[in-house]
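Translate structure to sequence.
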């Protein structure tokens, strides 16, 4: 693996201060004394340049904050929709699909666009970093990091709530360099983040950082880069189902770079983002144009989450209010948010299967259903150029065609183990 000279710096979206990346681990915050704000990567190359010989998504490495190129990386696939487009009366509907759909060139064996996040995060780890990466996940992120860390022998600890275990599989036995930690009991993604942070604060570990990691965001931003590479212009509408909103923040950041380049259009790109009802904190806040999410008690939130089909959309602490986060992106794009009921998502998924021929992740079904709503309300016009981000799918094919091995946790933590002192003790290397 060839090491790259840093071709990026990190700029605070609040105070504008520029930072070099950290010599060990990742720089995740500005550290100036102000309100929380996301950092953004700024690249030396202001032009959108493709490296045609680099593997998969690394052909966009000029605009990825990475220190090396990993071999065998996947890429999102852009496809024109004919049948579903016809059904909806949309002539210029394009999908960007991340998942498993071999005859269309989509070869992500972990089945979701989390496989666009894990490779650049791993490729951002500085040379000589000896500590272990700590990643928290509800399921899809864990599956992607399991695969990428195993393939490239990157020492990592992955923390998931026990309910996420059925969604974890690998195509090969899990190597020793990756430790899977499962949390027992009534815990969710948010608890996994809390425990992950405790582990990451122990000697010998460092945090991946979630939405604060620019490699994660710009990795997801390659969805927009793939679209522009193929179509030569920015879309007028961008549709995605969101849990944290990180993917939407990511394409919004990429749009800014493409505008600065100047060759790909100058019009607005409207963000159309959907959540799975009844868990719709960001929809509710955005509809009132509120920067703050409305307070909801824990029990209420957990009950709503339990009633949704798309569990990957159930982030209780999304980067919505933070400067440079989802509220700002929605505001700048004059965005729209949609609440999608389970039945509507399921119906949209069935129509997608009938028209286009692939099963979708329940979250991607939510995105398709939100497009149906937009057509109904005439928010999109027949000739508008539309990017529908299909964030996951092809699981049925994958299970039929590949030997998917369930992954067993190495460590199971029960609620009594979750005190900080006990965590520190268990994870001393
Ligand atoms: C994580 C995930 C989402 C939500 O993405 P965010 O941008 O983090 O909100 C949507 N669909 C699938 C399949 C996912 O795995
Ligand atoms: Zn700052």
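Result:
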């Amino acid at each position: 693996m060839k090491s790259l000279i840093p071709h990026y710096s990190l700029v605070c979206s609040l105070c504008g201060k520029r930072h070099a990346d950290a010599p060990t681990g990742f720089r995740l915050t500005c550290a100036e004394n102000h309100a929380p704000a996301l950092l953004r990567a700024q690249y030396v190359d202001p032009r959108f340049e493709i490296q045609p010989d680099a593997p998969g998504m690394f052909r966009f490495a000029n605009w990825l904050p990475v220190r090396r190129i990993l071999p065998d990386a996947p890429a999102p696939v852009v496809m024109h929709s004919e049948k579903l487009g016809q059904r909806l009366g949309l002539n210029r509907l394009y999908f960007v699909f991340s998942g498993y759909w071999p005859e269309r060139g989509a070869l992500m064996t972990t089945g979701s666009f989390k496989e666009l996040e894990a490779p650049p995060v791993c490729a951002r780890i500085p040379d000589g970093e000896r500590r272990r990466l700590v990643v928290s996940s509800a399921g899809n992120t864990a599956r992607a990091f399991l695969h990428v860390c195993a393939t490239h022998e990157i020492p990592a600890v992955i923390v998931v709530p026990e309910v996420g275990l059925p969604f974890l599989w690998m195509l090969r036995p899990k190597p020793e360099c990756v430790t899977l930690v499962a949390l027992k009991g009534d815990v969710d993604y948010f608890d996994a983040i809390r425990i992950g942070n405790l582990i990451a604060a122990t000697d010998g570990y460092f945090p991946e950082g979630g939405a604060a990691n620019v490699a994660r965001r710009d990795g997801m931003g390659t969805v927009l880069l793939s679209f522009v590479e193929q179509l030569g212009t920015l879309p007028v509408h961008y549709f995605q189902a969101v849990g944290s909103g990180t993917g939407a923040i990511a394409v919004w950041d990429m749009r800014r770079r493409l505008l600065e380049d100047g060759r790909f259009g100058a019009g607005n790109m409207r963000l159309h983002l959907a959540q799975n009802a009844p868990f719709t904190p960001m929809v509710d806040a955005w509809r009132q144009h509120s920067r703050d999410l409305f307070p909801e008690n824990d029990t209420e939130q957990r009950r709503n989450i339990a009633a949704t089909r798309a569990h990957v959309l159930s982030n209780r602490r999304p980067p919505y209010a933070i400067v440079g986060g989802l509220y700002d992106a929605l505001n700048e794009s004059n965005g729209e948010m949609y609440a999608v009921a389970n039945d509507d998502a399921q119906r949209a998924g069935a129509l997608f299967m009938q028209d286009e021929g692939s099963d979708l992740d329940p979250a991607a079904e939510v995105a398709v259903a939100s497009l149906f709503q937009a057509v109904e309300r005439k928010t999109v016009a027949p000739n508008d150029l539309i990017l529908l981000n299909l964030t996951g799918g092809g699981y049925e094919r994958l299970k039929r065609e590949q030997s998917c091995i369930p992954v067993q946790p190495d460590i199971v933590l029960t609620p009594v183990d979750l005190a900080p002192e006990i965590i520190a003790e268990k994870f001393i290397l």
